[in-house]
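Hello forum,

I keep getting stuck at the same step: I have a sequence, I want structure tokens, and every attempt I make locally crashes halfway through. Rather than fight my setup again tonight, could one of you with a working pipeline run this one for me? It's a single chain of 500 residues.
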Amino acid sequence: MQRRFLSIWFRYLVTDWQTLRRPALKGCPFAFAKPERGRKIITAINPEAAAEGVTLNMNVADAKAIFPDLEIIDTKPGREARLLKGLGEWCVRYAPIVAVDLPDGLILEITGCAHLWGGEASYLEEIVSRLQSKGYYTQAAIADTIGAAWAKVRFDNTAPIVESGMQAHALLNFPPASLRLEPQVIERLHKLGLTKLHSFINMPHSALKRRFGDHLIKRIRQALGQEEEYLQPICIPEPFQERLPCLEPIRTAAGIEVAILRMLESLCERLQKEGKGLRKAILTCYRVDGKIEQVSIGTSKASNHSPHLFKLLELHISTIRPGFGIELFTLDATQVEDAPITQEALWAGKQGLNNQEVAELLDRLAGKLGANVIHRYLPDEHYWPERSIKLASALDEQPATAWVKDRPRPTMLLKTPVVIEVTAPVPDYPPMSFRYQDKVHYVRKSDGPERIEREWWADAGEHRDYYQVEDDLGQRYWIFRSGHYGSDTPSQWYLHGFFA
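Reply #2:
Ran it on my machine without issues. Output:
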């Protein structure tokens, strides 16, 4: 089978991407530029800037002279490669081999792929329209060779499909730049009047080699299909997924358990070999009637322990409705993290959150009661009490700052302070009693005040004077007065937490 290649050209790659990030730039001329030898050079332009006469490699000063309102954005190294890699990974759905073609293109080997879309014409139209719908100005061409497809899309896109074996005829009227040559070689060819490929493509290679070097001969041979050109495809990591098709539809809970165990054993074996563990997984069951049943689980620490993961999935088996039977199971590890092997100590006890048994217990509790009922908090660098703690994203996440230990803080801090009625002498005396939830609490002991100023860079408002008080029943509370006593407006008191 003759190999076929698709060349995709994103003519305004970087500026299209910037317009997607900043929609206000749509319709406004702008360009990217970078410093080079003491001056700034244009590296990318959008169609509006091109219409004003701005060109690539132009000095920014000259571009500003042509169009004073041109917006200039600094170029960041490697941006084109990152954008093309992302687009290339998306294009893998159309061809198994996709390569980045810097600075503004992709190359796909599409041998045996186009018939799935009804032929090369509809295949090419599908890809171009989908990419354009994402906001990228896209052109593409198909040919037997990479060189011919690359030249066709950039120099004559009126008929984007080159029939098999016709690449030589398609290239004859193209300029030397269509062979992907160095600027110096292109300039020398033009000086000699060789402005079209038909002027020299059939010359003896020995004569061309003496004057222009090996690279010109190599590019001619590659474009004509006389020399192989190899791609360096994008490497996409294989997803952690297990599939289990069933010879007979599964309708019983026992059958579902067996399917889950088989997939978990295989998945956990792969995870262990790569030193990984899953944090989130989705079990999908495809029924024979076309309906889908899904179950998701999560872990507090990366885990590749199949018995533990099975217990989490087992809790949800009763929610799966097999209907007339399940014909396909898939298990996807949607979030995977490093799970280093922990070294066992013969004489040390398993203490703290690093104990795997504690993590697995929390996972089972979360599976039964819900993922939102178990929380772990870490200190945050804020003076304001409501902002001084944050939720931990993982069980083993380490605090970036130390807990406050030199000042009393309640065991339970209310998310929002509750307004209370207080009887207190003035000024700056602790309360004698307060009413909370329609009950009067008489204060027997108190400690304070501790003044906490509001974080003025975050919001405006009064400071707080906090008191730690104990009522006649021995219960302790954290209450505060907002601001100073004033003659015009009465001070407001709040309950903010409870001590153990």
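The chain is about 25% helix and 30% strand. If your local run keeps crashing, start a new thread with the error log.
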